[in-house]
Design goal:
By secondary structure, the protein is mainly alpha-helical. Helix 4 runs parallel beside helix 13. The protein has one domain. It is globular, with a radius of gyration of 21 Å. It is about 75% helix and about 0% strand.
Length: about 400
């Protein structure tokens, strides 16, 4: 019980600071100190955790990835690629509102940290037609970016879940595919309900030139995908090569090209990314995550509570997909079934964890997308809570029905 109270205090402080519009990086730094105090992490180990969080290869690589993604987004805007892409999509799709969903959904097929940032400039350009608020732009870009994570086999959390629960990855993906469909449908309902259709004067009249326009509008991103999956380069190298090529192939003046580099570099977002990694490191060093996972007995009714609480809380605290799977799923194997795993229990545990990911203020995609659009996270949560509740409610319903049959 004491562990749950401590975790509640950590979450409450983070939410209060966000509501008071404290910079998220600073809020995470203060919350890291609170975690250390509550879970007895002494000053020396705390300092080591902070140092490791700031200087680890993972953190440095992640900061590099985020900055390169920001640069590519700025490049797409600076050379009007985003505008051309949106104009081509307007002629290719029958309903212009789909332009707010399709680019983010397509880019969601590329597993990467802070991947929502790639679609943000496109959504920004498409949203000009309706003059949407920052919170709504954040929601559309964020939601459709994440519809694939229930079933897309390239996501590491799916691969990891399959290995831990010993469910064949094809079977796991097929079993969870309806939740990708549900997430996409829920997002479209929200989109069509809150955004007017407007004029369809050019809808559905596109041709080959518009298909080529979409390819040209996304070429740095498409090249990144090819380099990652075909050439099997590390993500940061693929992004770096794409970024270098944008400079080499640019016809702009040197001063204009440097302006794109300078504008794409955001020290604030780099520090925010580092603060997230420090927060995660302090959580691990303090033993807080293990305490969360082990606070509830895995037997009886409490086992079902553990299926929800452990993945959800770890996901909420870390905002990292791999964290909730790697830390909590091994503890859930006795509940899901070691020799004959129950796919319905595995599904509920996975959706519970991903629910925590979607609402976590420590989730890079949410934090960076909200920062990009200058959106108040409180306003984003007001929009986000409904669709998230629909998906989680469906998982809970499936669990209950599977137990009754």
């Amino acid at each position: 019980m004491i562990t749950l109270i401590k975790i509640a205090l950590v979450i409450a402080l983070l939410l209060v600071l966000i509501k008071r519009k404290v910079d998220l990086g600073l809020a995470l730094a203060l919350d890291s100190v609170l975690v250390a105090v509550l879970f007895g992490l002494r000053p020396r180990p705390f300092g080591q955790a902070v140092f490791e969080g700031l200087t680890s290869t993972t953190t440095l690589e992640l900061v590099g990835i985020v900055l390169l993604v920001l640069y590519l987004g700025q490049y797409l805007q600076a050379v009007n690629h985003s505008r051309r892409l949106v104009e081509s999509l307007r002629r290719l799709v029958r309903d212009p509102r789909l332009i707010l969903a399709i680019p983010s959904a397509v880019l969601g097929l590329l597993p990467m940290m802070a991947g929502a940032m790639m679609g943000a400039p496109i959504v920004e350009e498409a949203a000009r037609r309706w003059d949407l608020s920052p919170a709504w732009k954040t929601f559309y870009n964020y939601w459709f970016r994440h519809i694939w994570e229930y079933c897309w086999p390239l996501y590491f959390n799916i691969i990891l879940a399959s290995a831990i629960f010993r469910i064949p990855i094809a079977a796991l993906c097929l079993h969870q595919l309806p939740f990708t469909v549900l997430a996409a449908a829920t997002g479209l309902v929200v989109l069509f309900k809150n955004v007017s259709a407007g004029s369809h004067d050019t809808a559905g009249r596109g041709g080959v030139s518009d298909v080529w326009g979409v390819i040209l509008g996304l070429w740095p991103i498409l090249l990144t995908i090819v380099l990652i999956f075909a050439a099997r380069l590390k993500m940061i190298l693929a992004l770096a090569l794409s970024a270098i090529l944008t400079q080499l192939l640019s016809r702009s003046r040197l001063a204009d090209r440097w302006a794109v580099v300078r504008t794409g570099f955001s020290p604030r977002i780099a520090l925010l990314t580092a603060a997230l990694m420090v927060f995660k490191q302090v959580l691990e060093a303090s033993g807080a995550l293990e305490a969360v996972a082990g606070v509830i007995s895995p037997t009886g009714v409490s086992g079902y509570i553990l299926l929800f609480a452990a993945p959800f809380l770890v996901a909420l605290l870390t905002g990292v997909n791999q964290a909730f799977v790697a830390i909590t799923f091994p503890l859930l194997v006795p509940i899901v079934g070691a020799s004959s795993p129950d796919p319905f229990l595995a599904l509920f545990a996975y959706v519970s964890g991903f629910t925590g990911i979607l609402v976590s203020p420590a989730h890079l995609c949410l934090a960076l997308t909200a920062d990009y659009f200058r959106a108040d996270l409180h306003d984003v949560y007001r929009i986000l809570v409904g669709p998230v509740a629909v998906v989680f409610g469906a998982a809970l319903t499936v669990l209950v029905v599977s137990r009754l049959l």
